[in-house]
Description:
By secondary structure, the protein is an alpha+beta fold. The chain has 2 domains: 8-54; 97-153 and 173-390, phage-related protein like fold. It has 10 helices and 15 strands. It has helices spanning 8-24, 31-53, 57-68, 110-123, 192-197, 199-224, 234-237, 253-260, 265-268, 279-286, and strands at residues 106-107, 133-136, 145-150, 174-179, 182-191, 239-244, 273-277, 298-300, 303-306, 309-313, 327-332, 336-340, 344-348, 359-372, 383-387. The strands form 3 sheets. It has a 7-stranded mixed sheet. Strands 1, 2, 5, 12, 13 and 14 form a 6-stranded mixed sheet that branches. The protein has a two-stranded antiparallel ribbon with strand order 3-4. Helix 1 (8-24) packs antiparallel against helix 2 (31-53) and helix 4 (110-123) packs across helix 6 (199-224). The radius of gyration is 27 Å and the shape is globular.
Amino acid sequence: MTNKFVGPAYRELFAVLGEAVAISEKPEISKRDEARISVLLAKAAALKAAGANAPDDYCQRWFRAFLTGQPLPAPDGKFGEAERRAGDMKAGQQSITYTQGPQGGYLVPNEFANEVMLGMAQFDPLLDDNVVTLNRSKTFALRPWQYPGWDMTTYAATKVNESALQNAGTPPATSQAQLKSWTYRATLDATMEFEEDDFAPFMGQLSAAYGIAFARGIGADLITGNGSTAPQGVLTGAANSGYTTANSGKLVLTDFTKIYFSVNRIHRVAKKCGWIMSDQTYQMVREATDNNGRPLINIRKDKEEILGKPLYVSPSLEDSSSLGVNYIVFGDLSHYVVRLSGLSLVRVLQSQNAIEFGKALYTGRMRADAKVFDPSNGSVPPIVYATVHA
């Protein structure tokens, strides 16, 4: 039976593999058969790579139909609902018509969501799973979630004698952080002609715009959020190192060594240990040198490092009225846990200042929460911050 959800590249792959299996099952395999199998295996590898990198054909067709109001039947009943359009414009009978999912919209296809997430990570490193601990939900419903862990700062094995009483020893202290969710919304409008005539580029622009919007909106709270009415910002949850850089408008090597050694070694050697700073502070670092006149920033594997630890620039960590001063954040950033829901999207036709101009209104929603997870309860903080001299 033909699988309607398998793309053409995969169907051709199955046919190629089937022919290769049929040849291999022959009682005797000739030189010609061996050559044919080699050709088929090479073709199978190419088809597999193309199919793995290609977007889901059915999912893309459904998403386009969803956005442009074209019906697309689906055998499983999960997709295929076209946007409900307004009927005849009769006086007293008009109402807003829109596509409304069970929780405020429809989840976008995975490839579109991945493009948005990639844009968010490129805009702000605090949304990059290579920098922090990032948990992505497949749905828009972001239920409360417990993140557990142990305090490993003093945990050690004990030596025992064979004749001594064997016991379990003293386990490390356990702790957990509960993450909830706050909803963020971003709206865009686009002409219906642009949607239909230039759909593929439009989807790229849509994903790029949402990536910037959500990264900027969520990223601001990932710096200074209070943890009660918004996600806890890394600056809010980090411990104060007690250090202020020595000079106004200038950074020196001693500033970074002081901050570096204010964090316990167990956190300094962690895989995700790094620096976070604003672009303004980054400019001062670019001009800083060590005692021998060499730049403080080293380049290793195309990454900028200070004292061997990667440097990240967060646009949300700026010298603004809300902060009043610049800060440098340092430590094991894997202890900063960020949680994101799937991206939900609604397209509305009749909306104020949109339909009269021949436009449709897009509303994207995403839920998020974050917290600095410190199992030591402040005794050995994994992340600290220092104040940049005004």
